Amino acid sequence: MDAISTAQDRYGRLPEGPGAGPEPDLGRLGLDQLRTLRRETLDQEADLSYLRRLLHGRMDILLAELDRRPGAGGTARTTDPAEPAGALLERLPAILTDAPSTVRRSARHVTLGPPRGQQSQLEADALMGDVQLADLAAHPAEELLAALERLRAHEREVSGRRQRLLRTADGCNAEITRRYRDGEARVDDLLAGGPL
């Protein structure tokens, strides 16, 4: 059960899906409840972020393998057509390296590291189906394209879930800030050992 589902059980209904309706009424939650909800949503978002990175890495590897094959929709422009399939392993650092982003985004703390459970790895493995990364050359292009489409569809769904969690966490931050600014919460309570 994710943090939003848990919060729905505790605090009432939150919006469904990435574009669903108005944000939850965080104003009726207590300060401790807001902090707990924020922490849970950020923990869940970190797990989903890790899953997204796994999915993107696998998609990049599949695309590189397809590109290596001149007759499979690829152009073989990145490698010599006679290159053995095992050479893909040697190119992994280049395949998996992200180019610097040209899009300016607001800064957000990013937690790096593996998720708290193995669910992300299991999801990514299941989406690959019969296609194993260790032996991509043994699979026809159709199987690779089908695996790529499954990964893309799941990545879109995971991105929607992440956006929903981030909106909830941002809403919690804004409500906590408003309470301190408006005097509904006191910094002295935090200094006295209250929960963050």
Q: Give the topology string: H per helix, E per strand.
A: HHHHHHH
Segments where pLDDT lies below 50 for 5+ residues? 1-21, 74-81
The 3D shape can be described as: elongated
Radius of gyration (CA) equals 22 Å
Total DSSP E strands: 0
| Fraction of helical residues | 55-70%
What class do helices, strands and sheet pairing give? mainly alpha
Measured distance between first and last alpha carbons: 24 Å
Describe this entry's structure for a reader:
With 196 residues, this protein is mainly alpha-helical. The chain has 7 helices and no strands. Helix 1 (3-11) packs antiparallel against helix 2, helix 2 packs parallel to helix 5 and helix 2 (31-68) runs antiparallel to helix 6 (141-181). The longest helix has 41 residues, at 141-181. It is elongated, with a radius of gyration of 22 Å. 22% of the residues are buried. The model is unreliable at 1-21 and 74-81 (pLDDT under 50).
Helices and strands in order:
Elements: H1 3-11, H2 31-68, H3 87-90, H4 92-96, H5 119-128, H6 141-181, H7 187-191
Helix pairs in contact: 1-2, 2-5, 2-6
Keywords, please?
single chain, 196 residues, disordered N terminus, 57% helix, mainly alpha
In short:
The chain has helices at 3-11, 31-68, 87-90, 92-96, 119-128, 141-181, 187-191.
